[in-house]
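Project outcomes to date are best conveyed with an example. Our students and postdoctoral researchers have been running inverse folding experiments weekly, and each run begins with a structure described purely in tokens. The record below, which covers 199 residues, was selected by the lab manager from last quarter's runs and is presented without edits.
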């Protein structure tokens, strides 16, 4: 009896193919999300341009649209939780994708709104006058945090495609939804600061 018969060479078997597939799905979805948001911003910049506001800052219409998108996306994420609790996987995934799409639109419209707020004159004197810099900084930080929320949503969508969530386990969806709700509350506070400073 030879040694190879007693101890055959170990066969290589692929491990964690489900996790590898999910990681590739997440990466592809995240890159697509980022590219779509940039494309929406660019399209809005080309089509709408910069609004003439004069010397006074006014409430950008893009912020009203992005507020609507944020609220609607929050509602869509809530709907996804309702459907996963009753094991309606098709509707659960549909509402997750709707929420993700609204998040992409939010980032694009929000980025355009920030670009439209920047004054043409970017001198040191213009930057130090008023609360414009403060409002832009808060809005930009909120947009960056929302980008993280959209990445969370992309991860949850990729996990849902791999049947990760059901009526017993949907913590990732729950966490993502409440992160989205929290950013909505922060956005309302930013709008309140905007109203106090300029209206």
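After processing, the design step wrote out the following sequence:
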């Amino acid at each position: 009896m030879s040694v190879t018969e007693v101890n055959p060479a170990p066969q290589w078997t692929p491990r964690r193919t489900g996790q590898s597939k999910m990681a590739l799905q997440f990466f592809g979805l995240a890159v697509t999300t980022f590219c779509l948001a940039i494309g929406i911003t660019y399209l809005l910049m080309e089509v709408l341009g910069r609004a003439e506001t004069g010397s006074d800052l006014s409430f950008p219409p893009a912020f009203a649209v992005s507020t609507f998108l944020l609220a609607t996306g929050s509602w869509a994420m809530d709907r996804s939780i309702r459907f996963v609790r009753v094991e309606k996987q098709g509707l659960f995934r549909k509402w997750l994708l709707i929420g993700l799409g609204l998040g992409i639109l939010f980032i694009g419209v929000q980025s355009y709104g920030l670009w439209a707020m920047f004054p043409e004159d970017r001198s040191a004197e213009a930057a130090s006058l008023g609360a414009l810099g403060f409002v832009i900084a808060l809005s930009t930080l909120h947009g960056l945090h929302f980008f993280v929320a959209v990445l969370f949503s992309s991860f949850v969508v990729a996990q849902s495609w791999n049947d990760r969530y059901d009526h017993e386990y949907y913590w990732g969806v729950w966490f993502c939804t409440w992160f989205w709700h929290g950013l909505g509350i922060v956005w309302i506070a930013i709008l309140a600061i905007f109203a106090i400073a300029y209206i």
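Residues 33-42+59-119+129-198 form a domain with the Four Helix Bundle (Hemerythrin (Met), subunit A) fold (CATH 1.20.120.80). The longest helix spans residues 17-48. The training component of this project remains on track.
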